[in-house]
Every structure is written in structure tokens, then in C-alpha cells.
Design a protein that fits this description.
outer membrane lipoprotein receptor (LolB), chain A, 2 domains, twelve-stranded mixed beta sheet, globular, disordered N terminus
């Protein structure tokens, strides 16, 4: 989204951030958004705590559906409770994000035109690559990295998804300054203009020196007391990580699965109707915070895997959701040793023609005919959209 379009959307209201205890200079909401959108990405390393209060069954309470301990690090753990992640990035095309369990980790490493996911509990690696032509195209992109269906959330990615909704579908204001990970921060409040979305507001804490997002809180219309999702640094250092941590070496004894990730061709992108909201088996209806993503022909293995819930609930981007639910079906989002069908049944309820997953932020409707509908809207909206 162009900086000018983002700033123009705010109608230049005279809202100022309070200097508060942080003694920061005053700034308008428009100026803060301009700073965030226009800031250069920063190399950094740090620890992030992710907390989910989605109104779903506690994953630990699903032990009867699992044959493995939930102390293992896996994306499914992001459905409830708190999780700890370690983050490293060179602010260009190399990054590592590791989800930490009590005795294990699940990591995603990007290195420009290739990426790896690693699950320590079963010593499995998935290596994502492109064919030669796609790799060359991606290498020419300003910020091109392999789009893999295993990405873990970070404050920067969450904030980018929210700011993409601002232009036409939100209002912005400022809250009092705060301190995150020992750093002074402004707080930007993004409020949907929609009265039907499940999202009440999103609060983004922005570092006062680098203008990088330090924390993102997503509040549901169903709970005014606590955020439904919170993702924030507990410590962060803005410096270049070592080459060692940004590189991936296959651990001894690990199994490796090779996956070639297809990219849409320039011709495919050029032929996509600007207003149809569809690409192949993916279509969208509604707009902004009320967008409903519909996938058709989703394989049964994707519908019954742990990836269905964890990826849908932790993604606010329609494109990301389509990639993750209709992707390669590598199974990397499942919990090692688990019974995916039992987990799927425990998280969803039976409805006419399929099953429904309802949370305080996102609804997912899985139909017997292979369609999956998802959005930050009430379940009734999905059922109506399904026809």
C-alpha cells in the first residue's frame, strides 16, 4: 500500500499522542502511521510472547485427542494460552522464527529464495524451494522471500496486515505512550468502521526510535476486558544477528522433505480480474474486515489437520489464509504423534453440511463438498455466504 494512500485515509484529525510518563514528543495519528509505513525495516533479535484468548478449548485439555505431549513446540499451541517465540531478521531476506516448547522447538528459516521448517520433536525438516525460473523472478523482487505455509507470527507481520485494512475500512487514534521491552513506544489504535466484524480494535505499540512495531493487541467485540490475541516483544535488540543464527543446517539424523513452491506467473497476475477477488479455487466476498475467503476443492488431509485451525486463526491476511489452507498439504502444521481427526472434531461443531470452528476473532466453516469459508465475522455470516 502506498504511503500517500495510507496517510490520506486518516482525514488529518488533530489527535496527539500524550507525552505521558515516557516524555515523548507529541505526534498525530497521521504522522505516526506515516512513520511506521515509511520506516526502513530494522535488523533485530528478540523474544516474543504470543497469548491467545480466543474462546476455544484449551489445547492442553485436548490431551485425550492427542497421543503426544503438548509440551512439544507446534503451531497448534498458538490456539490458546501463551507461547514464546525467538525472532531474528537481517531486515532484508533472511530471518528465523522459533516457537519454543518445554523440551522442543519448531522453527521457520527464510533465506531469500528458499526456506526451511524444522520440528525438533520428530527431527523432521521441510525444505521449500522454487524452480529456477521462479527463483530468478523472486530474486528481482525488492523484498522477495519464499511464501511458505508454515510462517509463524511476528509483531511486524501482524501490524502490516492491520495497516493494510486502514485505507478505507478503519479509523485511527492514539493511546497514551507506554514502554515495551524497556523501550519507549507510542500506541496506535485502529478501529474497524464495520459493525459486523468480530474485531473491535487493534492496538499497535510502535518503537519511538526505529518506528518498528513492538506489540500488537487484537480485541474482540465479545470481550472488552482482555485482548483476544497479543503478540509483543519482552526483549529486543536492534542489531544485525550473526550469520550462524540466520543460516540453516540440517541437524544430524533429521529427515528432509523437499517441496517446490509454485509462484503465479506474470501472465496469471495480469489476467486476474481486479474486482473479482478470485484466483483459481480461491475467492473472496465482502470487503475490509468483513472479507470472507472461500476455498474450493480443499483436500481432505488439509481439512482434518491441525494446520486448519492454527493457521486460519493466526492469519489476518486473505492471501495468507488461502495459501495456508489450500497449500501444498505438507502436513507441517500438524502435531507430531497426534490424531488430527480427533483434534479437528474437538475444535469444531457439526452443522448442516459440514463442521464449524468459532472463535472470538475468526470463524471457519468446513463443508462436506470441499469448500472452506473463513473470516473475522460471525459464523452466521459464513453460513449465509455458503448458500
Amino acid at each position: 500500500m502506498a504511503l500517500a494512500l495510507v496517510v490520506a485515509a486518516f482525514a488529518a484529525r488533530p489527535v496527539l499522542a500524550s507525552a505521558d510518563s515516557a516524555d515523548l514528543p507529541t505526534i498525530t495519528a497521521d504522522e505516526l502511521v506515516a512513520k511506521v509505513v515509511g520506516a526502513d525495516p530494522q535488523p533485530l533479535s528478540g523474544t516474543v510472547v504470543y497469548t491467545a484468548n480466543l474462546g476455544l478449548p484449551d489445547v492442553s485439555a485436548l490431551a485425550s485427542a492427542m497421543s503426544d505431549s503438548m509440551t512439544s513446540a507446534a503451531p497448534i499451541n498458538l490456539l490458546s494460552g501463551s507461547s514464546t517465540l525467538r525472532v531474528w531478521t537481517d531486515a532484508d531476506r533472511r530471518s528465523r522464527v522459533s516457537l519454543l516448547g518445554t523440551t522442543s522447538e519448531y522453527s521457520v528459516v527464510h533465506d531469500a529464495t528458499q526456506a526451511w521448517s524444522y520440528t525438533s520433536s520428530d527431527q523432521s525438516v521441510v525444505h521449500y524451494t522454487l524452480d529456477a525460473a521462479d527463483a530468478d523472478r523472486l530474486a528481482q523482487a525488492a523484498d522477495g522471500t519464499v511464501p511458505v505455509p508454515t510462517d509463524l507470527p511476528t509483531p511486524a507481520s501482524a501490524a502490516a496486515d492491520v495497516l493494510a485494512q486502514v485505507e478505507q475500512f478503519s479509523t485511527v487514534s492514539l493511546d497514551a505512550a507506554t514502554t515495551i521491552a524497556g523501550r519507549d513506544a507510542y500506541q496506535l489504535i485502529v478501529t474497524p468502521t464495520s459493525h459486523t466484524t468480530l474485531i473491535s480494535r487493534v492496538v499497535i505499540a510502535v518503537d519511538a526510535q526505529t518506528w518498528s512495531p513492538l506489540r500488537v493487541q487484537v480485541w474482540s467485540t465479545q470481550d472488552a476486558t482482555d485482548p483476544a490475541l497479543e503478540l509483543g516483544f519482552t526483549d529486543v535488540t536492534f542489531a544485525m544477528p550473526s550469520d550462524t543464527v540466520l543460516s540453516f543446517s540440517t541437524p544430524a539424523g533429521a529427515t528432509v522433505k523437499e517441496v517446490t513452491v509454485p509462484l503465479p506467473s506474470d501472465e496469471d497476475l495480469a489476467q486476474q480480474p481486479a474486482d473479482a477477488g478470485s484466483t483459481g479455487s480461491v475467492s473472496t466476498s465482502g470487503s475490509g474486515w468483513d472479507t470472507v475467503v472461500t476455498l474450493t476443492g480443499v483436500p481432505t488431509s488439509a481439512l482434518t489437520s491441525g494446520a486448519l485451525a492454527s493457521q486460519a486463526l493466526t492469519s489476518t491476511s486473505s492471501d495468507d489464509l488461502a495459501d495456508q489452507l489450500g497449500g501444498s498439504g505438507s502436513g507441517s502444521g500438524t502435531v507430531s504423534g497426534s490424531d488430527p481427526q480427533a483434534l479437528y472434531d474437538a475444535l469444531t461443531t457439526k452443522v448442516d453440511g459440514g463442521r464449524l470452528l468459532s472463535s472470538s476473532l475468526v470463524s471457519v466453516l468446513v463443508l462436506d463438498d470441499g469448500r472452506v469459508l473463513a473470516g473475522a465475522v460471525p459464523a452466521a455470516t459464513l453460513i449465509t455466504a455458503a448458500g
